[in-house]
Amino acid sequence: MPGAGRGPAPRRELPGWETARAIAHRAARPLPPRRLPIDLALGHILAAPLTALTDLPAFDTSAMDGWAVAGPGPWRLTGDPTGVLAGGPAAPQLTDGEAVPIATGARVPAGATAVLRSEQGGVADGRLSGPNPEPGADVRPRGQECRTGTELLPARTPLTPAALGLAAAAGYDQLAVRPRPRAEVLVLGDELLFRGLPHDGRIRDALGPMTGPWLTALGAHTLVTRRLGDDAEALYEAVSTSRADLIVTTGSTAAGPVDHLRGVLRRLDAQLLVSGVAVRPGHPMLLAELPGGVPLVGLPGNPLAAVSALLTLAAPLLSALADRPTPEERRAQLAEAVRGHPTDTRLVPVRCPAPGEARPLSYAGPAMLRGIAAASALAVIPPGGAGAHTEVRLLDLPTA
């Protein structure tokens, strides 16, 4: 009898969670750099080292309000009674025994040997008296922080507010950066409602409001979220005409009667790089490369499974596109045991009430968002589970 004795079909081997993340990271190359004004560069990644265009400070400056003095005191006051102001003209050269009032940040006159702080000196009859400051006291010498040509920040540094301030001080008006990858979200499924309460077998769309902001938090510039239902032609047109650097779809990753994503990818001659991952939740996730080289990440339709796919596939892709450095791995000890899957990695929402501690949360099923909404990270649980006080890897979740 045909097929007798064959037993159940073997489980299709899926790539492990770490392997899938590595595939996703290799699937993208950094986007070409562009130049942005400093006030638009926040959060971008430096595409080239930041080297100083000037000495910092560019000239000897006063670190305090007081008097620029030459030699030992007492000193005879000279020059404009208002003194030397920040951004003002240079004062005449001082000779020994002379002093001039000076403001913080003002250029120290030639011949000055130190600055005497205002609280340390006193003036009477045009003469300044006070303790003799050490040579160079309260003077920031030219080039104290750096000299012209010094590398201040290496390429691939994220541009924080402090980094932008440093770039401005070093003489930059524009910076060469990796642009934020442009992402487009395509929400699939006729069963989804976009307002109001669930009814007649239809459910509210949780992924549309969540996916775009999540991609933004991961470093993308989310262009649009489009709701396509279960329309194969609309999906084909949306994917084939997209101008995004990354396309993310929600739902339709399985092989049901209205799951059109895989058929559309075959029609487009896309290369399927990941077709399922050995991770729970989210194992039906997929990653494809379109003929033009644009990656497409397919998120499963269940909310927590979709989050798992975002962190497994979309996060490393976006890091590669933006040339972001790999974040430092963070680990913590589980406050209690977590049951594992026999063969797959589990991603479990946890709260971290103290450094180095991870407390698993309830409501961690594939279709649930309640647990992850209260979580600060996902714990990576190896196959077979992890006992209490076991140290596990954490995936930090976006906070804004």
UniProtKB/TrEMBL annotation:
GO terms for biological process: Mo-molybdopterin cofactor biosynthetic process. It is an enzyme of class 2 (transferase). The keyword Plastid does not apply. Pathway: Cofactor biosynthesis; molybdopterin biosynthesis. It comes from the Bacteria. Its EC number is 2.10.1.1. Keywords: Magnesium, Metal-binding, Molybdenum, Molybdenum cofactor biosynthesis, Transferase. Its cofactor is Mg(2+). It catalyses: adenylyl-molybdopterin + molybdate = Mo-molybdopterin + AMP + H(+). One of its GO terms (cellular component) is cytosol. Residues 121-143 are annotated as: Disordered. Residues 184-320 form the MoaB/Mog domain. InterPro entries: MoaB/Mog-like_dom_sf, MoaB/Mog_dom, MoeA-like, MoeA_C_domain_IV, MoeA_C_domain_IV_sf, MoeA_linker/N, MoeA_linker/N_sf. SUPFAM superfamilies: MoeA N-terminal region -like (SSF63882), Molybdenum cofactor biosynthesis proteins (SSF53218). Signal peptide: none annotated. GO terms for molecular function: metal ion binding; molybdopterin molybdotransferase activity. Catalyzes the insertion of molybdate into adenylated molybdopterin with the concomitant release of AMP. Belongs to the MoeA family. This is Molybdopterin molybdenumtransferase.
